[in-house]
Structures are given as C-alpha cells and as structure tokens.
Amino acid sequence: MVFGELGRGCHGKVKLCLDTITGEKWAIKIVEKTAKRRFQSKLSAAARAAAEGGLNPPNPHLERIKREIAILKKCAHPHVVRLREVIDDPHSDKIYLVLEYLEGGDIAWSNNAEHPKPIQSVDEARRIFRDVVCGVQYLHYQGIVHRDIKPANLLWTADHRVKISDFGVSVFVDDDTLEADELELAKTAGSPAFFAPELCAIVSQQKLPLLGAPIDIWAMGITLFCFVFGKVPFMAETEYSLFNVIVKDPLVIPDEPHITDDLRNLFHRLLEKE
Asked: Where does the record locate the signal sequence feature (predicted)?
C-alpha cells in the first residue's frame, strides 16, 4: 500500500509504502531505466556510435542504477541505509528499490537562509558527526566512495541514530569499467557547495584521484560546518564563482565562544587544501 511521496530528485522519487502482511513501512525508490531527455546529451561516444550503426546502444544511465544497487547490496552497517530488495520487471521501464524507512527524515541544520543559525547544538553535531564517520569509514573499507555526503543525505532512525542514504552517484573506487564520460560526470556529481577543491580545479583528468576517499572527507567537513554554524563555509552567487572561492579562499571559522580549539583544529584538518 502506497501512502505518499517522501521526496524526489534527478535520480528518482521515493514513496512511503506499507507491507500489509507484516505492518512494516518501507521507502521505495523509483528510478527510470532510461535517462530523461535533458540527460541524453551525456550519452557516451560508444552509445552514440552504436545507435548510429543500428545496434542497441549501451545505457550508461541503467549502468549507474545497477551500480547503485550493487553498492547497496554490499552494505550492511548500522549507519548505512539498508536495501531490502529490488523489483525489476523486464516489461516495465522502471526499477524499484525497496529501502528501510527512516521515519526521522533528513537532519535539519539551519532555520534562516538570510541570517543562518544552527539548529543542532555542538554536542549534537558531534554525535551526528561520529555516526557519519562510522558509516563513511565502513564505505571506504568496502571500496565505496559516496560522492554526495551532505545533511540532506543523512537520515534519523527512530532511536536517533544517523544513517547515510542516497547512493545515486556513488562508485566503487576500483571500478575500471567507468568510461571517459563517467569520469567527466564524476567532476559534477554531487552538490557544488560540498565539492572538494580538487573537483573544482579539475579541467581534464582521465583517472581516479578525483574519485577517492578525500572527496568524502572534505564533504564531511562541510557537513559538520553546516551543523555547527547553520551555513556552508564557502558561498558565491554563481557555480563558477563558487568553485573559485572553494579553491582559492581560506577557510574562515566564526569566532564564537562555544568553538573549542579542538573543534577548530578538526575543521582545518577536514577542510585542508593542498
């Protein structure tokens, strides 16, 4: 039984469902097997060549969905969202991912866009961050880079634990099947305000330093900053300007009495630029 929609994004929509036999609630992520028209320009050269030759072209969008499923199937950790099953009807143009429902939703971190103030206390931010560290450490041990760590992808459980969700742009770090177009996508996957400097500065690279664990570490630093100060540390009017700011501007930590030297040092270590 479907109750309603929990959210949606460029990688699909999520609906709340009830198992009428067990009484359990589940979140079902629904994704299209074919990329929407506005993403068709990202088809690889191999796909375009196959189409022009009358062959069935490879489907990079579908491959990314399969990779997300493979990553979720590999994960079993208290701080990573759990996949129950996958429903893939060959006669349907959609794939359904049945995920555990986390009723606490995503973690709020600011209540005023013009004059941001944190919602979480420093102690609560520290506890959230500890759970995120445990989850990300597990992912990296499994050879997985999340690529989109941010507050919106961190969900509360009923007993107030934090779980990492949304693996739509995640990759296996040793995946040698990524095509050049996938590597190009890696430069723009995720949320710009959480991009690491090496992503912002890249003009043309062919291999995976940009897919490594440091991307997640940087995003964790930005996320912690959001929880402590209610805003991101680097801001600009345009995406291009934002990338320049992230690469060139120094980290400025607000001088507030509740910010200890240890916390200040942690920010500088997480958000260290080469």
From this structure: none
Domain ranges of the chain: 2-40+49-100, 105-271
For residue 166, is it left (φ>0), alpha (ψ between -120 and 50) or beta? left
pLDDT in tens, the chain (274 residues): 788 888 776 667 899 999 889 989 999 999 988 865 444 444 455 555 555 555 555 677 788 899 999 999 999 999 999 999 999 988 889 999 999 999 898 898 876 666 677 888 999 999 999 999 999 999 999 999 999 999 999 999 999 999 999 998 898 887 665 554 555 555 556 788 999 988 886 643 444 445 689 999 999 999 999 999 999 999 999 888 998 999 999 999 999 888 999 999 999 999 998 7
44-77 in b/e form (b: 16+ CB < 10 A) is beebeeeeeeeeebbbbbeebbebbbebbeebeb
Active site residue 249: no
Question: Is 29 within any annotated ligand binding site?
Answer: yes
Contact by Cβ (8 Å): 165, 153 = yes
Catalytic site residue from 88, 89, 106, 148: 148
Please give the CATH topology (third level) of the domain spanning 105-271: Transferase(Phosphotransferase); domain 1 (1.10.510)
